[in-house]
Amino acid sequence: MAAMTKRLRERLERDFPEPGSATEAVRIVDESSDLERVQAAIVLWAKGDLGKLRDASRLAHEDWRDALVRGELADDDWQERLDAELGLSDATDVEIGGQPRDVVTLWRPTGPEELALVEASGWRRWPPRLPDQPIFYPVLNEDYAIRIARDWNVKASGVGHVTRFDVRREHLEQYEVQQVGGETILEYWIPAERLDELNDNIVGTIEVVRTFR
Asked: Whole-prediction pTM value?
């Protein structure tokens, strides 16, 4: 089971302030689903009630779509509602050298070989693309990255990681967001020859936030 996102864990700590209740709530939600959207639906439906949280978790195991409906995250605007409830996850203000900079948080499903090269860089750069890989594809939605890591990388390599990293917004403004499926299936298409430029605009380090086997 994948780790829970920081913003959802913080919401659970607010909703379940009694001693020990947040720990139990985290356990229940962690076992309900790998997807933040489904986990959040369970939490929003429960409204701080452990009994309802257990009921919601059971429902998610039976049919996660019903849990989305109960948590009001089944409609097309679910991402906006999720950000409104938990706080934004796709952009944040950080400070570099005392100056505020606007950054965009991106995710990338990553196999073990690519991740080893990222680690070798000190977790600060993506490795050069191979000759038959003309485009670097970071994605704008964690759920989308999870599906690829879990459903494709695991089958291809035995393990799939979801990584997260921040890039200066001003650098990304030169690229169009590409919608390659539903409303949340969004990517940037970075030409391989410009990957070094992207690496130079990464703020902080590249983090592994989820691993599937």
From this structure: 0.56
